[in-house]
Design brief:
With 291 residues, the protein is of the alpha/beta class. The protein has 9 helices and 14 strands. The strands form 3 sheets. It has an 8-stranded mixed β-sheet. It has a 3-stranded antiparallel β-sheet with strand order 1-2-3, with no helix packed on it. Strands 12-13-14 form a 3-stranded parallel β-sheet, with helices on one face. Bound molecules: iron/sulfur cluster (SF4).
């Protein structure tokens, strides 16, 4: 295939075992982990967990990525749609509240093939960097129940510096509006699990609280009623060498952004301070990484 699935629109050739685009992913699905996961927001993980499918590769490849082995170095095991469908069935049998497809954009067609073989009877979550094209999201309309997009950078300069994507905000803002158009304001089950909706994640970066505040303002003005999960877990990883991003955020930085979110009266979630630890990085590509 000549791939135009994400906003990079490389048009690059992806064959069964080789990828020539920005993400360097072949057409064959590569998956780094399929296991229950308890560390998402309460309406996604609940008490039993979400069945998390961590796809290899990423269309954004942030310099500071906390999962660099899979996002930059594409570590993973090949899967067919039938094998993925079997894994989804095992996750449902294990009692998962939801199924999460994590950075799955380059494999959207293969995932749709898997879901044609087995449609889990629980909400399907599309966990994404936010760097999506509306055309690709339209392929997921009526299939994905819950969108879980990041909203990372407001300025072209930071999009360019961190992810070689100066158009990050232009694309992500348009994509998130499309996600909300598809799913509406959140609907929760009696158990508190989100059955339908969009939940926006924002990770505060050191020295960049003004970007965080501008993004929260955009959500408040553009998408009233859409919840935000404010994340404070940033730790320098993946050998990041961008000046200023070599430290965790300070308590003062966190409070500045949190207080702004509270002042805007945005619905959502605040992350616990203990989450800024490498203990929460999952184990990828080992035998025990797959259910
Ligand atoms: S998914 Fe990969 S190959 Fe396709 S357009 Fe995006 S970066 Fe390029």
């Amino acid at each position: 295939m000549n791939c135009t699935l994400c906003p990079r629109r490389c048009g690059a050739l992806r064959t069964a075992d080789c990828g020539q685009g920005f993400c360097q992913l072949p057409e064959t699905m590569l998956i780094a982990r399929i296991q229950p996961h308890l560390w998402e927001e309460p309406p996604i993980s609940g008490s039993q967990g979400t069945g998390a499918v961590f796809f290899s590769g990423c269309t954004l490849r942030c310099a500071y990525c906390q999962n660099g082995d899979i996002s930059h170095r594409n570590a993973g095991k090949p899967f067919t749609p039938a094998e993925l469908a079997d894994s989804l069935r095992r996750l449902v049998d294990a009692g998962m509240h939801t199924i999460s497809f994590i950075t799955a954009t380059p494999y959207v067609h293969q995932i749709l093939d898997a879901l044609a073989l087995y449609r889990p009877p629980v909400p399907l979550v599309w966990n994404t960097s936010g760097y999506e094209s509306v055309e690709t999201l339209r392929l997921l309309e009526g299939v994905i129940d819950v969108y879980l997009p990041d909203l990372k950078h407001r300025s072209e300069a930071m999009g360019r510096l961190c992810a070689k994507a100066p158009d990050y905000f232009a694309c992500a803002s348009e994509a998130i509006c499309e996600m909300v158009r598809q799913t509406g304001t959140p609907v929760y089950g009696a158990d508190g699990i989100m059955q339908r909706g969009t939940l926006i994640r924002h990770l505060i970066l050191p020295g960049l609280t003004s970007e965080s505040i501008a993004l929260l303002d955009w959500v408040s003005e553009t998408l009233p009623g859409i919840p935000v999960s404010l994340m404070r877990q940033y730790i320098p990883m993946n050998g990041v060498n961008i000046p200023g991003l070599d430290r965790p955020i300070t308590e003062r930085e966190y409070r500045r952004v949190r207080d702004h979110m509270l002042a805007l009266d945005l619905p959502g979630y605040l992350q616990e301070p203990e989450s800024a630890s490498t203990d929460f990085v999952p184990v990828f590509c080992r035998a025990e990484s797959y259910i």
